Amino acid sequence: MYARLGEPITIDDMARSAMYSKFHFTRMFQQAIGVPPGRFLTSVRFREAERLLLSTSLSVTEIAERVGYSSLGTFSAKFKSTFGLSPSVYRDLAVYAEPVSGAPVSGAKLRKRP
User: Fold this and answer.
1) Which residues are in the HTH araC/xylS-type domain (predicted)?
2) pLDDT tens figures, 83-98
3) Does residue 76 contact residue 84 with C-beta atoms inside 8 Å?
């Protein structure tokens, strides 16, 4: 998943790579990781999107494409449902974030600096 983050990846692709049926793969993956493979992939993609938003000047469209979304609207809607903010607002507010005890910015408390 990490190596092909920007490409479309299906459960069939993952199962074929592991040489299992998609049903067996999904069951085994969830048993081992604790979440279904699709949800895990979404989490990996958003973790990378968050990193890119906070550490690069790439546009939101470029970030969406890099993490496997061909539709900016879909990416933005899913990002907002996950983080509670649109990608651009999330990036803008990160300027005010102060990491708490070494936590990543996503776990930071947002406070406006004087």
Assistant:
1) 1-93
2) 899 999 999 988 776 5
3) no
